[in-house]
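User: I'm writing a short report section on ligand binding and want a predicted complex to refer to. Could you take this sequence and flavin-adenine dinucleotide and write out the structure as tokens? A short remark afterwards would be nice.
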Amino acid sequence: MKPTGLLEVTAVRRVTPRTVRVTFTGDGLGELEPWPDQQLKLLFPPPGRPVRLPPAGDDVMRWYQTYLAIPAEERPVMRSYTVRGRDPGRAAIDVDFVLHAGPAGPATAWASRAAVGEVLGRYGPDPAYRRSLSTADTLLCAGDETAIPALASILSEVDNTVAFVEVADAAEEQPLPGEVHWLHRNGAEHGSRLLEAVRGAALPAGSVAAWLAGEASTVRALRRHLVGDRGLAKSAVEFTGYWRRSLTQDDAPTPEDLADAAEKLGDSTGWKGS
Ligand SMILES: Cc1cc2nc3c(=O)[nH]c(=O)nc-3n(C[C@H](O)[C@H](O)[C@H](O)COP(=O)(O)OP(=O)(O)OC[C@H]3O[C@@H](n4cnc5c(N)ncnc54)[C@H](O)[C@@H]3O)c2cc1C
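Assistant: Sure. The structure tokens for the complex follow:
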């Protein structure tokens, strides 16, 4: 399957008060191989313009350079999302957009008024980014509402999971398989309930691996806790900062982001339980 192409909206619905599920069809989606945690980049055209896509190439870095070479006024805004569901028969995928609190960025603004017939671009899902699943006795997962699409696919593939999911309030819960502990912010600081719950959790006997995603500083604190206080091997903790407080996805990486990226590159041993 070509990793890039156009996506057309065929349905839009609210699955929770703050989550919009958009169904897209597009060339190549029918041949998309299934694997858990399928990430993709969505490309949002500037208002009033069609989406302009760089040509498909074999190399993601070359594709990105071509993307950057598009004149600023025509260049689509790029944001990361996860496939929430797929229907190969109709060459369709679902993507869940969290309508987050605070200033809406371009992706959230688009999702809040998405309509059938609109067209976005995509890069991915790309099998090059496929990760192997945990083989530990227990997989501990922790994330916020932006991680629910990835969690839904991981939890349905892996047995023996324990998940902690922090959402705005009870209305944001969604059915997920396995043992899931829902944490409601109810106005508390983002990430505080998640950190408190994971720090207070008793880890099961046997080997434990972890999967963490959500707000970057919370993910970092969770990882430090699991490695530093609980003794998990660094290679047993798969982690991704999905978004950063007060920063957009276009803003330059902070020194902490660069340190995280270096840690990830250094983890060449794969994802194994401690
Ligand atoms: C691999 C990956 C997969 C992802 N999958 C999903 C997914 O399936 N569904 C999903 O909804 N998101 C997902 N995200 C997160 C999403 O990409 C970010 O939330 C993104 O910043 C949203 O873009 P935006 O244009 O709305 O905001 P931006 O322009 O990036 O940011 C604008 C402002 O909004 C704030 N902000 C951004 N996201 C949030 C948030 N969630 N809560 C509170 N404030 C926020 C920023 O701090 C900034 O101040 C994923 C991220 C990654 C890296």
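A remark for your report: The chain has a mean pLDDT of 93. The pocket of flavin-adenine dinucleotide is lined by residues 39, 79-82, 96-98, 100-108, 146, 149, 240, 242-249 (CB under 6 Å).
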